[in-house]
Amino acid sequence: MLQLSSPILTNECLHGAYHRLTIDLGDLAKAARPGQFVQVQIPQLEGHILRRPFSICDVNGTVMTLVYKTVGAGTEALAQASPGTPLNILGPLGHGFAELPSDRPCCLLGGGYGCAAMLFCAHWTVARGNPAPLVLLGARSQADILLEEEFRRIGCQVGISTDDGSYGMPGRITALLETELKRHPDAWLAACGPKPMLKAVSFMAEQFSVTHCQVSLDEIMCCGVGACFGCVIKCKTPDTPQGWSYRRSCADGPVFESTEVCWE
């Protein structure tokens, strides 16, 4: 884990409320792995104690890409930061995805904002000479589908579903996943998105006896380093009287095996 300040290289609007920021973070970027995140001190809000967590969207050399959605004062302030503005960043944090295997089909699932977190995983896999994974993207509408062309550019086949039917297949991403698992029940799955989506993916993985399904749980985080226990989730722990225990999504995750999580 490193902490440093570095100037923003670019900070652009992708579409609607979604933005993409790039920043040269040197050794911090080189140490990052897919599924990890960083904690950012927002410009103009330095007086606020808490940083904001952002999934790492991609890394190219020493340049890190973050994709974010403006939803409150913090992200609104970040969207106003111009190139050259220094950002103080802590990271990389958390435990990310396991490396995807080369000897079986791999499928990455991104729901809503979770689409952004999966690009680094796909890029990392292809850069190591492995086959490009299948990517399934799901969202409420076409306006919430992120980075489709970026996935295609690195060689990924992309399937899309939208709740309102405005783009791709109408319905939930699990319908796309079911089709894939009927063809490849031995697929390796990795997913990031809203908790109800991850729960549905987990149950479908169990239904098809999938042996590897990892999920990234984007819980609300405070410190981001495991000190405050503000982002705990229930995980199965057979050797405890209640059969479960709390684990910190920031320090013990955010990526967990889907079979570990108590889906309530």
Q: What would your notes on this structure say?
A:
The structure is a single chain. This protein has 264 residues and is of the alpha/beta class. It folds into three domains: 2-93, Elongation Factor Tu (Ef-tu), domain 3 (Beta Barrel), CATH 2.40.30.10; 97-211, Nucleotide-binding domain of ferredoxin-NADP reductase (FNR) module (Rossmann fold, 3-Layer(aba) Sandwich); 219-264, Dihydroorotate dehydrogenase B (pyrk subunit), domain 3 (Ribbon), CATH 2.10.240. 21% of the residues lie in helices and 34% in strands. It has a seven-stranded antiparallel beta sheet with strand order 4-3-7-1-2-6-5. β14 and β15 (244-248) form a beta hairpin. The radius of gyration is 18 Å and the shape is globular.
List keywords for this structure.
264 residues, alpha/beta, Rossmann fold, 7-stranded antiparallel beta sheet, 7-stranded mixed beta sheet, 6 helices
Strand content: 25-35%
Rounded to the nearest angstrom, the radius of gyration is 18 Å
List unreliable stretches of 5+ residues.
none
Specify the number of helices: 6
Spatial gap, N to C terminus: 32 Å
Structural class: alpha/beta
Shape call: globular
CATH topology of the largest domain: Rossmann fold
Count of structural domains: 3
Just name the CATH architecture of the largest domain.
3-Layer(aba) Sandwich
What is the level 1 CATH name of the largest domain? Alpha Beta
Helix % is: 10-25%
Q: Which series of helices and strands comes N to C?
A: EEHEEEEHEEHEHEEHEHEEEE
Q: Could you tell me the number of beta strands?
A: 16
